[in-house]
């Protein structure tokens, strides 16, 4: 992927991995617009207000971005929520599941769909989705999160097939546990954000662009089933369920 001289929209770029990635792209010489529900002015970055759970908000943001940047040639859809669940408690679990699906899955699909026509018309561009190592090896404490990320992976594979021959490339980030504020509380061994982004930028720079951007820490998750480690790792990743109330 060409990493300079581009105009890149990162939806979900106001904090965490998205914020760090936005800064890396800006430092590399790109025009970067970050989108979020309540974006704050950030040096070197433009902002747009967008709520991925609101279809009208997505279309308004699309029109605003394209009016200011008709040369937009890359869209990164990475809005997400990371919520734990107790599947034995439907009263709370179902609300969490609905929120997670609306943001992580429908939000991704809506954002990508909003900009696909523009990118196809240009005859070139890049769409980046964000799944997770959990898409390939569940972390049962976050059941719906994992389900949405598995769905994002499948959707991305289909999207790439649909866009074949249009000049629009499709890549998928597959992060491991990265030490954002939310994840650091759940996993003390999470990869530092800067270390993760260093490796991501190196992998993104490859030509042709890789279908999946899988850093070293995510490889055991991505290939657990192939490598015969799936059952053992899943059992270990299920241990936090014992800390839920009433267990």
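^ structure tokens above, recovered residues below v
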């Amino acid at each position: 992927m060409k990493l300079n001289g581009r105009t890149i929209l990162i939806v979900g770029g106001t904090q965490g991995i998205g914020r760090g990635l936005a800064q890396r792209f800006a430092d590399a010489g790109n025009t970067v617009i970050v989108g979020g529900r309540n974006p704050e002015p950030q040096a070197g970055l433009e902002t747009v207000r967008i709520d991925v759970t609101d279809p009208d908000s997505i279309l308004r943001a699309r029109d605003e971005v394209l009016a200011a940047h008709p040369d937009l040639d890359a869209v990164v859809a990475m809005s997400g929520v990371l919520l734990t669940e107790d599947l034995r408690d439907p009263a709370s679990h179902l609300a969490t599941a609905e929120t997670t699906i609306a943001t992580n899955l429908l939000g991704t699909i809506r954002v990508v769909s909003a900009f696909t026509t523009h990118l196809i018309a240009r005859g070139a561009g890049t769409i980046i989705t964000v799944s997770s190592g959990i898409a390939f090896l569940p972390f049962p404490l976050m059941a719906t999160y994992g389900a949405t990320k598995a769905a994002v992976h499948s959707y991305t594979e289909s999207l790439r097939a649909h866009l074949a021959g249009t000049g629009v490339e499709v890549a998928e980030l597959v992060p491991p546990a990265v030490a954002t504020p939310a994840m650091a509380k759940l996993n003390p061994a999470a990869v530092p954000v800067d270390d993760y982004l260093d490796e991501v930028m190196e992998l993104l720079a490859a030509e042709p662009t890789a279908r999946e951007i899988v850093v070293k820490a995510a490889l055991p998750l991505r290939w657990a089933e192939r490598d015969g480690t799936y059952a053992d790792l899943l059992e270990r990743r299920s241990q936090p369920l014992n800390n839920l109330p009433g267990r």
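The first strand starts at residue 7 and ends at 11.
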